[in-house]
Each structure stands twice: as C-alpha cells, then as structure tokens.
Amino acid sequence: MTHDVLFQKFVAFTAAVHEVTHELTRGVKNEDVTPVQYKILEYMMVSQPVTPSEIADCADLSLPNTSRELRKLIEKGLCEKATDDADRRRQLFRLSADGQAMMGRIFGQAQQGFEERVAGLTETELQELEQALELLQKKVFR
User: Fold this and answer.
1) What is the pLDDT of residue 99?
2) Three-state secondary structure of the chain
3) Integer Cα distance of 68 and 16 in angstroms
4) Cα separation of 76 and 102, whole Å?
5) Higher per-residue confidence, 47 vs 85
6) What pLDDT shows up at residue 130?
7) Mean pLDDT over residues 115-121, rounded?
C-alpha cells in the first residue's frame, strides 16, 4: 500500500472518529458549557493538571481566549487553578469535584453508546479491536 492510500484511509478514519465522538457526547448539550469549554474539560479529564498553553495548543485557541474560557469554567465551578510548586509562575488547571462529576456523567453516556456499538462483537473481535487501538496509540497518536 502506498503512503498516499494509507494517508487517505487515515483521513477517513479520523473524520469518522470525530463524527462518532460527537454522536457519543451529545449529552454535553444538557450541561451549561459551550463546545469550546467542553473540549477544554475533556482535555483536562484525560490529562490533568494542564497549563493554559497546553490547553491552547490542544483546543486550537489563542492564549487570551483560553484564559477567558478558563475564567468562565472557574466561575461555573467546573475547574480550579493552582500554582506549580516547582515553578511559582506556572499555573495549573484541573477539574473541580463538580467538573469531575459532570465529565463522569458525560463519559458514562459515551460509554453506554460505545457499548451499544460493540455489543455484537465476538470476544476475538473485541481483542482485535483492542490490539488495533493499542497499535494506533503507539504508532500514530504518540
């Protein structure tokens, strides 16, 4: 297989991932957060604590916009700010207890949707799926 063909398959795969992720996280609409704020909270859920520059890079936001959204999330009680003990100039953000609870609800809904999608797979297919995800993580999404 040529790299061109492999790349086209990768693009189709990532588009499908975004589509399925959107479908599985529809419960966000029931929460009082914007799509940008959700993206920040989702990133915090899997990578906390995080710095504003890490959030800006991941969410494709400017630092001023990131700071504004973080301030709004703090006001909503969904995240909290701390100072890095090793470098007092560095700010770290993590989910608050309310933010953890909200993301737990959303991830629970997403997991239920995921389980519905894989319900008909055999044990062998589930193992193959796990191996494929591990391979993608190790080789492409490192």
Assistant:
1) 95
2) CCHHHHHHHHHHHHHHHHHHHHHHCHHHHHCCCCHHHHHHHHHHHHHCCECHHHHHHHHCCCHHHHHHHHHHHHHCCCEEEEECCCCCCCEEEEECHHHHHHHHHHHHHHHHHHHHHHCCCCHHHHHHHHHHHHHHHHHCCC
3) 31
4) 12
5) 47
6) 95
7) 93
Identify the pLDDT of residue 27: 63
Residue reference for tokens 């993608």: 136
**What is the C-alpha to C-alpha distance for residues 122 and 3, in angstroms, rounded to an integer?**
32
Residue type at position 5: V
The model's pLDDT over 49-84, given as tens digits with 9 standing for 90+, comes to: 999 999 999 989 999 999 999 999 999 999 999 988
Domains of the chain: 3-139 (1.10.10.10)
Residue closest to 37 by CA, chosen among 67, 17, 15: 67
